[in-house]
């Protein structure tokens, strides 16, 4: 209620940007770089006093190479990137019976590299494989999560997808 100082409504707004540059090195190879910002209002995360947390913000930096071979039947792409995110709602562990609440984290940085191969080995058979390595942790020394790894973050990922379209 307004008399208790708790805010159940909050208006957040921001202008974000994204810019990229691509340069064709050869007919088959292109280099690119990209910078972007993110802004995500928080809807259902509250601090210990019941106030809505600040919005999550972020920046991404990415650079890579994209290639195409065999008349478009084989593509190999590689990239390096850094993602900085702040104010991520993080639930605080509380004893049973106490009201759960969250805090806004400090800087969370993820740095990684990825390799993706897409192709059509036979007519109608499409194959895609990707490998990603990632290092993520909290960087703000004033953050209670400083040095910790974000939950649910894998150090590496591998994926594969295949499909066949009857000819």
Could you describe the 3D structure shown?
This protein has 167 residues and is mostly beta strands.
Features of this protein?
9 strands; mainly beta; two-stranded antiparallel sheet; 7-stranded antiparallel β-sheet; 167 residues; elongated
Indicate the topology.
Layout lengths: L17 E7 L4 E12 L15 E14 L4 E13 L2 E4 L8 E4 L3 E15 L2 E14 L17 E9 L3
Antiparallel strand pairs: 1-2, 2-3, 3-4, 4-7, 5-6, 7-8, 8-9
Number of strands: 9
Sketch the major β-sheet. 7 strands, antiparallel
Chain-averaged pLDDT: 90
Distance between the termini: 65 Å
Helix content: under 10%
Q: Spell the H/E element sequence.
A: EEEEEEEEE
Q: What does the radius of gyration come to?
A: 22 Å
Overall shape: elongated
Q: Give me the side-by-side strand order of the main sheet.
A: 1-2-3-4-7-8-9
Structural class: mainly beta
What fraction strand? over 45%
Number of helices: 0
In the predicted model, the low-confidence regions spanning at least 5 consecutive residues are none
Quick description:
With 167 residues, the chain is mostly beta strands. The chain is built from no helices and nine strands.
